[in-house]
Amino acid sequence: MLAPDSLLGRIQSPADLKSLGDAELAQLAAEMRSQLIDVVGRRSAHFASNLGVVELCLALHLTFDFARDRLIWDTGHQVYPHKLITGRADRISTIRTRGGLMGYPNPAESPFDLFMTGHAGCAPSTALGLKVGDDLVGETQRHSVAVIGDGALPSGIVFEAFNHASGLKKKLLVILNDNKMSICPRVGGLAEYLDRARMSTTYNDWNRRVKWLLPNIPLVGEHAERLLQQFKDAIKASLHHGMLFEELGFVYLGPIDGHDLKTLRNYLERVKAMDGPVLLHILTNKGHGFEPAVKDPVKFHAPAPFQPAADGIVPLKTSSSRTYTDAVSDTLFDSCGRDPRVAVITAAMCEGNKLQRIRETFPAQFFDVGICESHAVAFAAGMARAGARPVVDIYSTFLQRSYDQIFQEVALQNLPVVFCLDRAGLVGADGPTHHGSYDLAYLRVFPNMVVMAPGDAQDIGPMFDFALAHDAPVALRYPRANLDIIERDVQPVELGQAEILEWETDGMLLACGAMVGTCLRVAERLRQVYGLRVGVINARFVKPLDRDTIAKAIEECGFVLTVEEGCLMGGFGSAVLEAASDAGLPTTHLRRIGLPDRYVMHAERDEQLAEVGLDVDGVTRAALDLARSVGLHVPDIAKVKAAASAGAGAGADRGRLAANPAATTR
Fold it and tell me: What is the pLDDT of residue 665?
């Protein structure tokens, strides 16, 4: 809640900043940080990155008029200060909640947000495109600015944009926000290059002097000019400072203190008057203004809710539940210990994928390539060709960035690379940029590719053993959810074999991946409350499908409902329909449910599942509608409600699921 006498409460648009003096701007920056701390006290949100760009955000909006000029934040999780001063401060408490503000830029919220920027590295390209487009339509006076973090800088698309911008020589400002971090500490040679730039201001001091001196040197002619340029280049090369960017065709300025508002404004005013592409290198601290976040920016990237305390923070809630990510991480750790050929590759997501223990215990088998997913997959292909057993552990949404390498370097070569697709399905508050909606559709089209989805905790280990032993590419997809544990005699994992959990002939639920637990609860409810005997099959394999088991279900069961937490077009249900068509089977009693053909907005994951009909209630409704459509008797709803109110089915929804103390989604 904004204080009624706060400066922040008076800022309804960036134009209101113009009337503030230096002292008031410093007060405003402090109020903005206080507001960010308040947000994280309510819910998990991106934190340290936003604390680090408060002064930069103010300087940008004081220098440019982004009601006309163009601004792209890369990545968009550092956009909270921008939202605070563009008319959304009174709604910041709703961020990342259903119906509230998005945790990323959102053009539907404000004209100051031009793109939903949830994947790193694209800002230079889109900002350049905006500038060229503006010039084409006659808006030549508009400035175009891209803010990119040093963690995103190694992304290949960044250098493609730099190369093009240099050739076009368009007026473009790229601000390199260098805080020595991605989500985890940045890696690679470019990181070392930027570290050397941080260590010295010698070149910048010299560069300012030589620009003053050149007009006063009594030498003329091309020879003298060439000698001076060679001398300047030699100095730059010896000091490392900015040489890379200048060789790419950018004017390089910096590094400068990104928390010194006055200096930032001075430099931005200078840059505003310059032509051609410019890179302004600023140094910031992730978590600036909140000491615990400065000391541990990894922990405070998107922390659980907390309250500040005199000696640090007080966590407001913790969770002891085991997730699919935990189980996969533990299985990977065991695999690395058993087989030195196993290598784990991630793209700057060590923390999110919970790979820290592998990094520390097996450093020779762990590779963080930075935000470079295409390289990660091609790198894994080379390792596989050499006889290693690489595992590429990346969020489903980010693996899309390496689609061509999955095709060309892995599937086409039929190489044994294992893909772990974390956050498959709906991810909750991060919203549509981060949902893993499309992996089943985009992976199953490739020859040689095996696609699996564990139904519960007991599937993960056997599936991993299978994947590492299989001499072809294999993908495992799993959600951002707590584990279900299904009490059963676990059937061995064999290529293309589903697991029949319950066989009934009124109907059959063909469950893909983590939807197995939901389907078991639905089957129990249908049996207890509605008197329908409905079976459940754990599909396990999306490719190759268990065509025999599926055909038997289609032939023997009154109805068949496929259930998947992925897009319907091209997904698991589509594969089942294709198999039925190939076998010449009727499909009038077969239906598919999954993610709809629209983007599901940010909310809690259980809210999203309910919205798209993939919770127990939604799947139950779909099964009942299908049962009625094929002529099965379904009891009158009033009688059902009466039975339910008398206690029927209240505790039975757990069915055969073991007592996992926190088997709810997170």
Answer: 30
